[in-house]
Design goal:
The complex is a heterodimer.
Chain A (H helix, E strand, L loop, with lengths): L3 E4 L2 E5 L4 E7 L6 E7 L6 E7 L4 E4 L2 E6 L4 E6 L8 E7 L7 E2 L3 E6 L1
Chain B lengths: L4 E3 L2 E4 L5 E6 L6 E7 L6 E7 L14 E5 L5 E5 L8 E8 L10 E2 L3 E5 L1
The chains are: A mainly beta, B mainly beta.
Amino acid sequence: GENVEQHPSTLSVQEGDSAVIKCTYSDSASNYFPWYKQELGKGPQLIIDIRSNVGEKKDQRIAVTLNKTAKHFSLHITETQPEDSAVYFCAASGGSYIPTFGRGTSLIVHP
Amino acid sequence: GAGVSQSPSNKVTEKGKDVELRCDPISGHTALYWYRQSLGQGLEFLIYFQGNSAPDKSGLPSDRFSAERTGGSVSTLTIQRTQQEDSAVYLCASSFGPTSGSYEQYFGPGTRLTVT
């Protein structure tokens, strides 16, 4: 089955800095890679996703890159703000419609 | 429009009791998922429903856990003879699923279960 590794588990940055979270996956059949943001006491919310026919996707301050050859994908957040503080999860799916999630990254943005 | 809703938001129960957790998916979504999230942990897949197909129960941790989905909409997750290790947040998600080639999942707010 699919295995998704996510790093780092905790990331602390100053407001205005960039943050990068990286994930690797094992199943070459995976072709859909979403990122979720989970705020305290809430369910995960989809913030951006990428499919295997695209190498990079941007949405304002967030971007995701995908390297299918190396089987890794990354989330980039620029000009971080305190409200970006949350737990971020990556996931991979495509071999089946059941995604495999990473263990999460707790992002802390210090004002 | 309305998102995924779950009830109750919090449930405290005594060890050995049965509990039922409810999920109302987004209208029109044929796929429904249940996950368990222990404190500070990732999302553990439990069960997946797609339309009228037999559910994928491969993530259920024991036979004390079961789920059903009535009329292709509302789902109930039942935990029998609860144990303290069942304490977690139970999340439900729905999606348009394979019928539309869609993988995007929309999560509910979760039910926090505490077994005392």
